[in-house]
Each structure stands twice: as structure tokens, then as C-alpha cells.
Design brief:
heterodimer, A: about 140 residues, alpha+beta, Rubrerythrin, domain 2, 2 domains, 4 strands, about 40% helix, about 15% strand, B: about 325 residues, alpha/beta, 7-stranded mixed beta sheet, 10 helices, 7 strands
């Protein structure tokens, strides 16, 4: 349910012009690296090869960094929606099943009959589980 | 500093736009409107409410209640026009969705106002003021963003834990409606008769617990031994989510009208009032209910049992009122 919401909107779309620049820089950097390698094989042009190598690495690092930052910006903007779980229970035999939340679910709603005793089951819980990231309190008192 | 505010403003704009998009999509999906609801939603997002004049504060509660009733009726009418195919539960959820979208729109506009004002006047102090409160504003905006999804899908939210406690107590017992938008069930509880009250679910609704409690007290001619109110309360940093605490007084938030009515009625009949609160932060209160909060409902019931056993005698009548938005919680 929540995954389908991550449609691209204007804010999360990366400009095609920016992408073009990144990929052109990347291609030029790779070309510079290839050129550096070919120049290095000739002892007379080994000095120039070092410059091309440096240029290639700088271009490669720069374009990778910009690409990574663009992706990070999009990830920062996204609103995270943790999965919501619905617990269904049979009050007669105690059979319990857990599934993903579906639109229309609510606590104490009667749902499909129990697989074991054919009694109507009810939704007993709807909640989300939060996994705390590195929960180490800086002030432990 | 300016760049930091600009970055947050960009995120706020994204959240606001997402809110608007979710609201419009939900209306189209559930309400099946004949025409495109976008223009009407945009108009709705700009609605405002003017609070009554308080120069002469006597009688202000009733004026405020009237204004809030008018606002509520107006919102309901607007939702009916926007989503003609929605049933009552869905209409309530849509109303809540639109209110969350409105809150996001307002937050974005206020922060944009101060950012632009700071830039225009070249005042560092204006920018500094927003920069200082920005982490709290962002937290609130993110909370509303998750609330929006919860409302759109009809998921229980953290604020509804009071209603959940009441629902757990009244489940399986006959319920009847009481004014306004509330339900009550007579539940035998430890040899006492408990009138368990909550807002009518499972649609997004807080009801008017003040009116409901007053009605039950008057039906019993004031012969109520104790009132216990259960509500979600904001926790302080360092406290655990789902911690249960107990005290006295009317545990109810909102603009204060219901709290005023409850206090007036209990004063008239000299009824003691106790409160059980479940602690959570603002983000948890308006986003889908966390497991810890859900599990705290059982701890709160145990605490209610203790209060009733300690503070009342067998055969007494008590009121147990679960306060909060009952979205995604039936009875």
C-alpha cells in the first residue's frame, strides 16, 4: 500500500540537464583515463599521461559525488511510511494471523471466518513497529 | 543560516505538495466526484477560523464552541460536496485528511513568510528566529505528513489510544449513541457499573466527550462515584513512549470547550475526577499507532482497575471516558 505512493513528483525528479552534465563529465573522465593509459605506454609521453590521469580521476570523483548527492537529496525528501500490521484473531479457538494493513481495516472489525473453527474472526490490533536507529541514550539516567 | 532555512523550506514545500496530492487522490478514489476536485481542495486549504473576541472573557467558551460548531458543519458540507460517494466513515476520514493538508499548507506559508521577510529586510534576527525553531517545526510537519497517510487509509493514530482503551472495555456490550458523535456502553466492572464513553468510530472523529459525560451524569442525577478519563499526553524527552501515568483532573486536549463543560458539571455534583495518560511525542500522536502505544492500552486498563478498586465501592456507578481521535477503532 505505502510503496505505491512513492511516485515521482516535481521535487523528487532530477533535472535532465543536470543528469546530462553529470554523464558527459563521467564520459569525458573515462576518456581521459583511457587516453592516459595509452599515453603511458609510450616513454616520451609519460609526463603528459600523468596530467590526463589526474584530470580523469578528478572528473570521475566529481561526477560520482554530484550523482551521489543528487540521490541523497531525493532520499532526504521522501516521507518514510513504515509498514502497518493488522492482527486478526479468532475469539473462540484463539487462532491468530498477521497481515499487512488493508484499506477498510479497523480495530474490532469482523472479517473472514476462522480457518480452524469457521467462527468469524475480528481485527484485534493495528499498529506499526518502529526500529530505533542506534538507540544508545547519551544521557542514561 | 539562510541556506539552512532555504533547504528546510524546500522540504516543507515538498511535504505540502505531497499532502495536497494525497488529499486530491483520496477524494477522487473514495468520493468519485463528477468534476475535478483540485480547485475546491485548493480553496479548502486556505480556510481560516477567527477565534472570538476575548476583551470581555465572560461567556467566551460558548462563543468559541459556536464558532467551532460552525467550522465543523462547514467542513462536513464541503467534504460532502467534494466526495459525494463517500459514506460517513470515509467522509470523516477525508475531513481529517484535508485538515492535515491544511496544517501543512499553513506551516509552509508561515515559514516562507519569515524567510522572505528576512531576505527582503536583510534582517539577520528574523532569519535567526525561524532557524532556531526550525527543528521543531520540521518535526511537526513530518508528523502531519504521516498523519495525512494514516487519515487517508483510516489507520488508528497514536492520539486514539484513549479511544482504544474505551473500545477494549466496551467491546461485546450493547452501545448507544450520546451527544455529540459519542457512544456509551454500560459495562459491569469489578462489581461496579461503568459507563464507558468514546467517540463513535471507526471514522476519524473526536466527538464531544464533554457533552457525553454531562449527559450521563444528568441521566444518573449526579449519582456517579468517580470519573476516569484516559487520553494520550505529550511526553518529555527522555520518557518512554507508551509510559502510563495517573493523576487527577480532566484529561482532554483541544480548544478547552469540553474540559470546561466537564469541570462545570463535576463541580455542580461534586464528583471526583481521575486521569490516566499514555505518553507519546507529537510525531507519534498523529502518525499510525506504534506497537508500544497499542500495548500500553492494556496497562492503562490495569491502572483503571486499580483506581476503581481503590476509590469506589461495589455497586457504585463510574464513568470511564476514552478521549482522542477514534480513526480506525471501532467499538
Amino acid at each position: 500500500m505505502s510503496r505505491s505512493e512513492n511516485k515521482s513528483s516535481a521535487a523528487t525528479r532530477v533535472s535532465s540537464f543536470v543528469l546530462l552534465i553529470i554523464f558527459v563529465t563521467l564520459a569525458l573522465a573515462l576518456a581521459a583515463l583511457v587516453l592516459a593509459i595509452s599515453l603511458y605506454s609510450n616513454p616520451e609521453t609519460q609526463g603528459i599521461a600523468v596530467y590526463w590521469l589526474l584530470l580523469g580521476f578528478i572528473g570521475l570523483a566529481l561526477s560520482t559525488y554530484v550523482l551521489f548527492q543528487t540521490r541523497q537529496r531525493i532520499l532526504r525528501l521522501r516521507i518514510e511510511t513504515p509498514p502497518i500490521t493488522t492482527t486478526i484473531e479468532c475469539r473462540k479457538c484463539g487462532f491468530k494471523s498477521v497481515r499487512e494493513f488493508q484499506r477498510g481495516d479497523y480495530v474490532f472489525k469482523e472479517v473472514e471466518p476462522c480457518q480452524k473453527c469457521n467462527e468469524k474472526m475480528i481485527i484485534t490490533a493495528i499498529y506499526r513497529e518502529v526500529r530505533e536507529k542506534g538507540k544508545t541514550p547519551s544521557f542514561p539516567y | 543560516m539562510l541556506r539552512e532555512v532555504e533547504g528546510s523550506l524546500y522540504k516543507l514545500k515538498y511535504i505540502r505538495d505531497e499532502g495536497r496530492r494525497i488529499a486530491i487522490e483520496t477524494i477522487k478514489e473514495i468520493g468519485k466526484p463528477q468534476t475535478d476536485p483540485t480547485a475546491r481542495v485548493d480553496r479548502f486549504l486556505e480556510y481560516f477560523t477567527i477565534s472570538p473576541q476575548s476583551l470581555d472573557p465572560a461567556g467566551i467558551v460558548w462563543k468559541l464552541e459556536h464558532i467551532l460548531d460552525v467550522r465543523d458543519a462547514r467542513f462536513k458540507d464541503e467534504v460532502r460536496l467534494l466526495a459525494p460517494a463517500a459514506d460517513e466513515t470515509q467522509a470523516n476520514n477525508l475531513e481529517n485528511t484535508l485538515e492535515a493538508a491544511m496544517a501543512l499548507n499553513y506551516i509552509y506559508k508561515v515559514i516562507r513568510h519569515y524567510y522572505l521577510l528576512g531576505k527582503k529586510t536583510l534582517s539577520l534576527y528574523i532569519i535567526m528566529q525561524i532557524q532556531m525553531i526550525l527543528p521543531l517545526v520540521m518535526r511537526e510537519a513530518e508528523a502531519y505528513a504521516s498523519a495525512l497517510k494514516a487519515f487517508a487509509y483510516g489507520q488508528p493514530i497514536g492520539d486514539g489510544v484513549g479511544a482504544l482503551v474505551a473500545a477494549k472495555l466496551m467491546h461485546g456490550h450493547p452501545v448507544r449513541k450520546v451527544p455529540k458523535d459519542c457512544v456509551v456502553a454500560e459495562v459491569p466492572f469489578e462489581g461496579r457499573t461503568a459507563y464507558v464513553i468514546k467517540a463513535e468510530g471507526p471514522g476519524g472523529n473526536v466527538g464531544k466527550p464533554g457533552d457525553a459525560i454531562k449527559t450521563i451524569i444528568e441521566e444518573n442525577e449526579g449519582k456517579i462515584a468517580n470519573i476516569i478519563m484516559i487520553d494520550a499526553a505529550l511526553k518529555l524527552e527522555g520518557e518512554e513512549v507508551g509510559e502510563v501515568a495517573e493523576g487527577v483532573g480532566a484529561a482532554i486536549g483541544g480548544p478547552g470547550v469540553d474540559q470546561f463543560k466537564i469541570e462545570e458539571t463535576i463541580l455542580k455534583y461534586r464528583i471526583p475526577i481521575n486521569a490516566v495518560i499514555i505518553k507519546e511525542d507529537i510525531g507519534d500522536a498523529v502518525s499510525p499507532m506504534r506497537k508500544e502505544i497499542f500495548e500500553a492500552a492494556d496497562k492503562a486498563i490495569e491502572r483503571i482497575r486499580q483506581v476503581i478498586l481503590e476509590r469506589t465501592k461495589e455497586g457504585d456507578k463510574v464513568i470511564i471516558a476514552g478521549v482522542g481521535n477514534t480513526i480506525g477503532i471501532g467499538q
